[in-house]
Amino acid sequence: MGLNIKPLADRVLVEPAAAETTTASGIIIPDNAKEKPQKGTIVAIGTGKKDEPLTVKVGDTVLYGKYSGTELKFEGKDYLMMRESDIMAII
User: Fold this and answer.
1) In this predicted structure, what is the pLDDT of residue 31?
2) Helix (H, G, I), strand (E, B) or coil at 82
3) Residue 1: inside a domain, yes or no?
4) Global pTM?
5) Which of 40, 75, 42 is nearest to 57 (CA)?
6) Percent share of the chain, pLDDT over 90
7) Which stretch is the leader sequence (predicted)?
8) How far is Cα 60 from Cα 13, in angstroms, rounded to an integer?
9) In contact, 13 and 44? CB cutoff 8 Å
10) In-domain check, residue 3
11) Is 61 part of a structural domain of the chain?
12) Partners of residue 63 on adjacent β-strands
């Protein structure tokens, strides 16, 4: 992706998946009622801590807690910066 951002230590930069716009039955969900996505793709990682190397890598699709991470906008896109410990699973 060529992002000019490098997370430090055990932090990772996640690009959240797009919020669902329709339900399974086809009902359109308005913007103010959409659930915050809890899934995303890792686009940058730090170097890990001295005795704790990172277990995720760039390109992994991950699940994280609803209120995990710090939202930030970089080069016009929305991202979440979080610690690896906020990630619950790789899918």
Assistant:
1) 66
2) strand
3) no
4) 0.80
5) 42
6) 57
7) none
8) 11
9) yes
10) no
11) yes
12) 39, 89
Q: Which among 47, 72, 67 is positioned nearest to 58, based on CA atoms?
A: 47
**Stronger pLDDT, 19 or 27, i.e. the higher one:** 27
> What is the Cα–Cα distance from 85 to 77, expressed in whole angstroms?
24
More confident residue, 63 or 52: 63
Amino acid identity of residue 14, one-letter, is V
Contact present, 29 and 22 (Cβ < 8 Å): yes
> Do residues 41 and 60 make contact, with C-beta atoms less than 8 angstroms apart?
yes
Which residues have C-beta within 8 Å of that of residue 91, sequence separation ≥ 6? 39, 61, 62, 63
Residue 81: in which H helix or E strand, if any? strand 77-83
User: How far apart are the C-alpha atoms of 17 and 37, rounded to whole Å?
Assistant: 6
Q: What is the mean pLDDT of the segment spanning 9-37?
A: 78
Please indicate, yes or no, if residue 30 is contained in any of the structural domains. no
Q: Specify the amino acid at residue 77.
A: K
